[in-house]
Amino acid sequence: MPRKESPERGAAAPGTFGRLLYDSRHKVQKTIASVAASSGLAASYLTAIEQGRRSPTLGRVPAIADAYDVDKGAACWSW
User: Rounded to an integer, what distance in angstroms lies between the CA atom of residue 36 and that of residue 40?
Assistant: First the structure.
């Protein structure tokens, strides 16, 4: 029997920086490729952040927030 795909599959735990990015990206229906292009970071790196497997340096958080159209203050707070 095939497994049902969950819309939150691969997302980090609620309240985390990765989850903020994941939810924001899906809310505006952006692809990971478009966010990667606008941030200048690799799509695989951003996916790992969304999944909670990687954490960017604080210096990169504002640029990532811009690419995801997230408030910089909220992004820094959840980081």
Answer: 6
